[in-house]
Design brief:
136 residues; alpha/beta; Signal recognition particle alu RNA binding heterodimer, srp9/1; 2 domains; four-stranded mixed sheet; 2 helices; 8 strands
Length: 136
């Protein structure tokens, strides 16, 4: 069994996944639009180039996403994507990259449970937690 986060965007899924691909050193393994489906002729206007499904391979993990159809988008709440990493320099790089044009809730710093920990919401409204290593 594998549990995969599936993110919903308000029309920015492709942009977000290309951003995450760069920030995380990941690879988009699949992306298709609503217009590529058999239901393309039944879509609301302006939806044919929006993403119906995208998959991002992040190491041996998968992040998936979709653009909500008009009137169906809900702002993310009640969760955060958590990245656990052991390299402090890489944790700082990822945190800084994801924070670009986003909002930092807690700067990356040492805590009683981690060498570095920080929280942010990226420019697409997705909340992230970066957790780096554990004190001996």
């Amino acid at each position: 069994m594998q549990l995969n986060p599936y993110l919903t965007f308000n029309g920015q899924c492709e942009e977000a996944f290309r951003f995450y691909e760069k920030c995380l050193g990941a690879k988009i393994s699949f992306m298709t639009t609503y217009g590529d489906t058999l239901a393309a002729d039944q879509l609301p206007e302006g939806c044919s180039n929006k993403i119906i499904h995208s998959t991002l391979a992040v190491g041996d993990q998968v992040l998936q996403g979709v653009d909500a159809l008009p009137g169906r988008y809900q702002e993310p709440q009640g969760f955060a994507l958590s990245i656990n990493i052991n390299d402090p320099a890489e944790a700082e790089r990822i945190f800084d990259a994801l924070a670009q044009s986003g909002a930092v809730q807690m700067p990356l710093k040492q805590t009683f449970w981690a060498l570095l920990f920080g929280m942010l919401t990226d420019r697409f409204g997705i909340p992230w937690m970066i957790n780096c290593g554990y004190p001996a």
